[in-house]
Amino acid sequence: MREWEFPDYESELPVSEKSNPLTRDIDRASANHVVRLLEACDAEIFQEETGSPYKKLFSDSIIKTMMAVAEKVADILKGVTESLVVLSGCGTSGRLAFLVATHFNRLSTSVSRSPVFAYLIAGEDKALLSSREAPEDNAQLGMLSLQKLCQGKGRVLFIGISCGLSAPFVAGQLHLCLQHPEVYTPVLLGFNPGSQARYEPIPGCTFTFQSVVQQLEELTVNQRAFLLNPTVGPEAITGSSRMKGGSVTKILLESVLSAAHAAAHANTHITYMGMLERLREYERAVAITYAQTEVIAGLVEAAGQSLQCGGRVCYLGWGSLGAVGLIDASECIPTFGADYEDVRGFISGGYQSLGNKDGPLTSLGPQFSIAHADFERLVLHTLSERDTLLLIYTHCDAVGEVERLARRVREKTSGLHAIYHASDASATAADNISDLCSSVLKIHWPSSAGESGDSNLRMQMELSSKLVLNAVSTGAHVLKGKVYQNHMMDLQVTNTKLYHRATRLLQGLSGRSQARCQEALLGAVYRTDHLTVELLNSDLTAHTLAASTRSKVVPLALVCLLIGCSVSEAESRLARQPVVRDAVEACLTSSTQP
Ligand code: S6P
Questions:
Q1: Can you give the pLDDT at residue 449?
Q2: Which of 69, 116, 206, 458 is deepest in the core (most CB within 10 A)?
Q3: Taking a C-beta distance cutoff of 8 angstroms, is the pair 559, 574 a contact?
Q4: pTM of the model
Q5: Which of 13, 90, 212 to mutate to test the pocket of ligand 1 (most atoms within 8 A of CB)?
Q6: What is the mean pLDDT of residues 223-234?
Q7: Is the shortest distance between the CB of 494 and ligand 1 below 6 Å?
Q8: For residues 445 and 461, what is the distance between their CA atoms, to the nearest angstrom?
């Protein structure tokens, strides 16, 4: 058994919020070591069940549930009109819902079938590209958006994704499904045991996530609801479910939907061995990716240097790999308190290639300019040697266009790198581009990879790119000192989950009571040493809303707690020591000295 699997290891926390013993010292690791630690954490995804108290990805019950859900999807694909498969979630979970739904709609269209997949994300399409953490708390919004989407539909298979079994937005939608079983069949996807689902009351609702899960569990007996919740171990950076949680979400959804697609359109059967093989393909994709640890570490190092000296990291991706880049970049804002310009994604063809349902969002502001043309117009002329640029493409993309852009970037900076996916046959095709780059992560996919078709190979390349980019953006922020031990110190406190996580972090580091830590947190949110009774009594939503306009809330609160100083004194201390990890360490040392 792993240390975190013992019942007394951080026993009050669900697995998704525990800190991973493997990465306790990740804040002190070199780029190379960071990548090896991430590899070790990702390996837990495929850990066998033997000896563990938890259900795992390869557990019999998980494979069988995947098969049963695939059968339901196949029925819908086989052509009942007025039916829909809805994938929904918040933050990364919603972004992956988008990525997967879009992929499978394109696949349906390619075999002349109508698209039946739809996605919902809390905060709508804006949230695909930017941080929108507050709507996650809104169960009513979840219900309304599902109701609106499914108006007039006779049958809906609803797949709600919440890695931590915690998002009220998704709980509301599952609740709606349970109220209308004649239309909806609910599926819940997440990575905690049902007993660890969030039990906190949801304002204005009679249900909690936990009560919804209990109802779902009862219905699983007759296959009127499904629960897909293998445990994959705590995240490398505590609570950062964009990492393992996001990867497993992608693996599970794609395995189920591709089995369903093959059953509906190629007359294959959904079998136990077939499902197992799909999962094994992803396990091999992860191994193929991490076989290149050294090169990935080089990218982490380069990106880390850029962030440390005030430079930027830009991902220039093609096709769905561009979308993977946009997603990774958008997550740095809430996770590390980053600015949108620190890590930024661009996709060839812009919104047309992204395929989001609301179309172009460019008018919403500069961070919504996502096309390569925008990059050339707005960013290219500002590049310098401080910046790191990553080209992300495959042998199937417009290699001539990749070369053209590479040449333009190279005129400005030598910080150009490439992530290039190639099948055996085309492995040497891109040498002109390699010559322009400081380093090339060339991932060769054996012809056996994606045996079941181009679509599967593409999805594996996406996962592989996700792992590399997660390593780059996480590793770069670790090197920048944004992580203390394996905790994100500068997280945004913009919803209740993050508020509670921040309070726990403050308790753990300062040893003060929950009430005292909440006071310090609120002091930092409102930048005051004198919290009024009115402020203390206002509800959490008001606090998380106020926090959305503030930076460095958690580090400030911690300094106040450890030093016993005023908020403004803490602000000047942090200004003197901008590396958050060093500031925290300095305060911890001085607070333990007599
Ligand atoms: C996590 C990411 C968040 C989560 C979101 C949904 O790294 O920044 O945006 O995806 O909070 O979490 P969950 O547990 O409902 O999937």
A1: 60
A2: 69
A3: yes
A4: 0.95
A5: 90
A6: 97
A7: no
A8: 9
* Residue 593: both structure tokens together: 């000295």
CA of 90 to the centre of ligand 1 (A): 6
pLDDT above 60 for 451: no
Residue 152 backbone zone (phi > 0: left; psi -120 to 50: alpha; other: beta): left
Give the whole-angstrom CA distance, residue 227 versus residue 159: 10
163 lines ligand 1 (CB under 6 A): yes
Ligand 1 lined by 228 (C-beta under 6 Å): no
How far away, in angstroms, is 384 Cα from ligand 1 center? 33
Cβ-based burial of 283 (10 A; exposed 0-12, middle 13-18, buried ≥19): middle
**Cα dihedral 458, 314, 102, 359 in deg (nearest 10):** -150
CA distance 431 to 400: 11
E-only strand ranges, 378-454: 388-394, 416-423, 439-445
Which atom in ligand 1 lies closest to the alpha carbon of residue 167? Answer: 15
CA distance 383 to 405: 13
* 436 close to 410: Cβ distance less than 8 angstroms: yes
Helix runs in 309-414, H state only: 319-336, 350-354, 372-374, 399-410
- Taking 80 as the threshold, does the pLDDT of residue 96 lie above it? yes
Determine which residue's CA is closest to atom 3 belonging to ligand 1.
91
Number of residues written out for the chain = 594
Q: Which atom of ligand 1 is nearest to the CA of 95?
A: 10
Q: List Cβ neighbours of 10 (8 Å cut-off, separation of 6 or more).
A: 4, 18, 19
Q: What is the ipTM of this complex?
A: 0.99
Mean pLDDT for the chain overall: 93
Instruction: Tell me the pLDDT band of 431, cut-offs 50, 70 and 90.
Output: confident
Q: Give 396 Cα–ligand 1 centroid separation in angstroms.
A: 32
- Going by C-alpha positions, the residue among 318, 315, 334, 335 that lies closest to residue 326 is 315
DSSP count for the chain of H helices, then E strands: 23, 12
Q: Is 136 in the pocket of ligand 1 (CB under 6 A)?
A: yes
CA 93 to centroid of ligand 1, rounded, Å: 6
Cα 397 → chain centroid: 25
Residues 6+ apart with CB under 8 A from 34: 26, 297, 300, 471, 474, 475, 478, 479
